[in-house]
Amino acid sequence: MLRRDGLLTSAVRAHSSRRTEAKIVRTVQDAAFSPTLQRDASPSQLTVSLTLSGSTQPVHLNLRRDEDIYTQPVTIHRVRADGSVHSSETTDDHLVYYGTASTKEKRGHERNWARVSVHMSHGVPLLEGAYHLDGFEYHIQTDSTYRQTRAEHDASVSSAAADQPYNVVWRYIDDEDGLLAKRDDESTCGLDSLAYDGGSLERRQRWGGGGGDTTDSLLQSLGSRSGCPSTRAIALLGIATDCSYTSQFSSEQDLRRNILTQVSSASRVYEAAFNVQLRVRNITISDAECPSGDAGLSWNRACASSLSIADRLNEFSRWKAGFDDQTAAWSLMTACQSGSTVGIAWIRAVCQPGVLVRGAVRSTPGANVVARTAAEWQVLAHELGHNFGAVHDCTRGCSGSSGSGETLCCPLSSSSCDAGGQYMMNPSVNSRVTEFSPCSVGQICAAWGRGNINTACMRGNEDVPTVSESVCGNGVVDAGEDCDCGGEEGCGDNACCNPTTCRFTTGSVCDPSTQRCCTGQCQLASSGQVCRESIGLCDPQEVCSGNEANCPSDEQLPDGQACGENGETGLTCATGVCTSRAMQCSALLTSNNSTETVNSGNVTAEACSSTGCELNCMQMGSGGLALDGGMCQASSKFFRDGTLCGSNSRRCYSGTCGGRASNDDGGGGDAASWIRNNRTVFIIICVVGGIAVLMALATIIHEDMCNETTFVFTRLSSFQGLGIDD
Questions:
Q1: Which of 315, 383, 606, 614 is flagged as catalytic?
Q2: Cα R_g (the chain), whole angstroms
Q3: Is 386 annotated as belonging to a binding site?
Q4: 383: annotated active-site residue
């Protein structure tokens, strides 16, 4: 029986939805590997037959080595408790496999997928990962990992002898009935707005001052992949572990393997939804021994410390803002769950390195914090979805509207709000959710295409850093290769590239799977053919030259160049978008105003001043008269990079005019004062089932409430934990 308790927002306590019996748990009685797996072996193809307790029918996993991960160099930094780096190295050779699952000794249907890592422990071959078979998702863990992440009501497994580890396979019982844990109340989920100084405090938009999402815009882009890359893009990630997370593993190899397994599983849904592959570029590992007092890195503290998960994100963001390594995002992995909280992320911050001004974070980096749970990769995928700019899917009781103080959420369709709790960005994310909703796909792809998220750090498969020797079939065009479409399975019906030699087939001169100026007949596209569409007046289209297979680099008109058309004046280019201070104010107030639509009828918007880079706006009525007594509505946003500010054609960059610090104090010297001054957006994931911490609100955050296996997200009504008192 599945019991569902209501979850309420604001000053009302949130309750959990607990299962009386959450999982079916089986142990692996026998695992047959073909070819036989040996230490230091790395077969490119592998078949694994698993015999589970209580079952006589083996499960067959037909696998291929993931060459993208196998050859991807990962830089490892090891950090002492005092914060100093005591060693660094760059490694590759990470054994992660993907393929299909079946109950017969033949390749299964592609919907029955499998993603696992393989390693030897005390001479015993072990798997970690997941597979999907006949409508159910099964999780494969080592016995030690299962014991560490199991919920209190889950079945226990016996402890293995130190030299005899084994695998555990589990799935949810209520998968049989297709049930998803859902809250019974109708409280609003997603990004809420807050009245502040007589105006509305909106969701901060990190890349681009205009183009805020509305329900109408989400419906218009529903299910559309227009804007997402047509050829595979690669998002390189940084991962850091704190002492609590490191101490969960018996060896560094086990820790690294777990991280790569989580990222590989999350990557599968990003590849399917956005044509984006996730890869780990850097792992920073803290010692298992936690520092004492205030020694070492400020985000690396024991769970018993007063550091909340929100504090960890603030301190982690301050650390990350100190360097720019061209990664899409950094994740801090921890075993600490502040009350019921298991994760937190900045929204729309992908590819943002962050900016420090006198030790304070002035512009937040792409960063998130993820606590270790049984659904670790889903939490990671959900958090990265927020980094890419996705809001939550709508649920029962949500109107899908950003008006009247309600939260913007992603509807299922034009006629239905409730997405049914079945997608990655649903407020009740759990371990069975394995794909993004059509609305989330449309939202991220539209933002990508319009330049409303920063994608400058994304790589193509021909320019990913590598230190390993060339390997044909890894999906990366290495030195000496003509092409690489990913081996026989990845190449499919590609007629241009030989999957085993990575050479062009006879008569072919290019490969359209990786080269935009290549035709389906494997020939160079004609001169003048558009290979990258324009996204506006300041971002001209790129065309093929006729003698090169690669599309020219993406060029934008210079910041500050006039760009108006049809008699429009006062518009200039700002990082590829034709805009003005007034236009950005109109977009901001249009998408968030709760009483009337700005820019409809006689209502317009203007910036409160012609200088500075904080996006503070006022509504204007007919005849140029300010409404609301000329009240200036402060927000946590900045004008788009490249927007004119002040005299001498100075421009805004990272929230400062002319690229220099503004005349204020830079946001203060600590996280609390920075949040007080910036009032930006948090997205938090919390465990349903513990006490929901409710504190005095000075910024907009999300708390994702969940038990050990079901994650539910809602808004906190306060944030005293950071010392905010206004």
A1: 383
A2: 26
A3: yes
A4: yes
